[in-house]
Amino acid sequence: MVPLDEIPLFVDPYYWLKYFPPIGVDHLQNFGAGVDWRRAFITTSVNPYYDAFIRWQFETLKSKGKILFGKRNNVFSLVDGQVCADHDRSEGEGVGPQEYVLIKLEVLKPDHGQARHEKMSKLLAGGKPVYMVPATLRPETMYGQTNCFVLPTGEYGAYLVDATDEVFIMSARSARGLSCQVYKDN
User: Fold this and answer.
1) What is the DSSP letter of 9?
2) pLDDT digits (tens, 9 = 90+) for 13-40
3) Is 43 exposed, middle or buried (CB count within 10 Å of its CB: 0-12, 13-18, 19+)?
4) From the CB of residue 134, how many other CB atoms can be counted at a distance below 10 Å?
5) Burial of 168 by CB count in 10 Å (0-12 exposed, 13-18 middle, 19+ buried)?
6) Of 25, 47, 48, 45, residue with least CA distance to 37
7) How far from the centroid of its chain's Cα atoms is residue 15's Cα?
8) Is 32 left (phi over 0), alpha (psi -120 to 50) or beta?
9) Beta-carbon count within 10 A of 170 CB
């Protein structure tokens, strides 16, 4: 436990380097780790020789195509506004990202003037393609989809998707989840 009077000292990032490494060494020695403690493995200006070695190593590996840069799927916490690693969660440990596939079913303009189609006709008059987008975790079961059954008591909204300039009709929960996704390279 860090003593309360030392906490203000942690505003200096170099203080972290002085405070925690000896504790880590002590824990590893108690664990029985066989490490040559004559060398330090800190990669900052505090240890310029080791820092230069690590920079060289990464640049060499990157030039050989062994280190890649890109995006990877993560679980994102809407509450915290950040990626939520497996052990960061109080519930749902072991749950990873899932591929959730939207099936775009285009809404066609009704060919008759029934009053029940009035809202949809106004939406279609906006000039943007409109789709009902049911979602599934098993897209292989959706081939040849011709129908879209709508929950009669469900609440749906029309959401403009900036990435595609289309209107998706879906629940607020689906729209919120979709807002956390990456579309192609955006």
Assistant:
1) G
2) 999 989 998 999 999 999 999 888 887 7
3) middle
4) 19
5) buried
6) 25
7) 32
8) left
9) 22
Q: Which residues of 47-72 are buried (b: 16+ CB within 10 A; e: fewer)?
A: beeeeeeeeeeeeeeeeeeeeeeeee
For the record, the structure tokens of 155 come out as 């609440």
Q: How many CB atoms sit inside 10 A of residue 167's CB?
A: 19
How far is 186 from 180, CA to CA, in rounded Å? 12
Burial class (CB in 10 A: 0-12, 13-18, 19+), 128: middle
**Phi, psi for 77 (deg, rounded to 5):** -90, 115
pTM for this prediction = 0.58
Q: Is 177 exposed, middle or buried (0-12, 13-18, 19+ CB in 10 A)?
A: middle
